[in-house]
Amino acid sequence: MRSSADVPGARRYEDPDEEESSWNPFSGADGAFHDNADARVTLVSRGTLGGWDRRRFRANVVLTGEGEDALVGSRVTVGTTELDVVRRVSRCVMTTRPQAGGIGRDTGVLKTIHRERGGALAVGALVVRPGTVTVGDAVSPA
Question: The whole model's pTM is what?
Fold first, then answer.
């Protein structure tokens, strides 16, 4: 009997509880994984993140300043990409879990997001025009 670890191309995840991280197999849908069917790109600002490690929220774009919530309902360009910012991103218990790279368990994260931000942190967007985004690109009205 073969395990998924023996299958070439098997999907794997890193176990953050192990001292030396290893990759463990898991079963799931083929293709890219994204946990948000309503938005394909997430944007969050450094002002919103405050002291939290940005990796905890897996945003695609981290903005300088603050105020990404005001982008909901608008179209913006970032680099040569045009985005339709459709909604705020609701957060779940995964934000509290330990994660690779030394991000420890923190149950206060989700409590704070619910208390101070109505359960949402970051904004989600759909890609209207694919393009290239590089560090330092400005977010501008489309």
Answer: 0.75
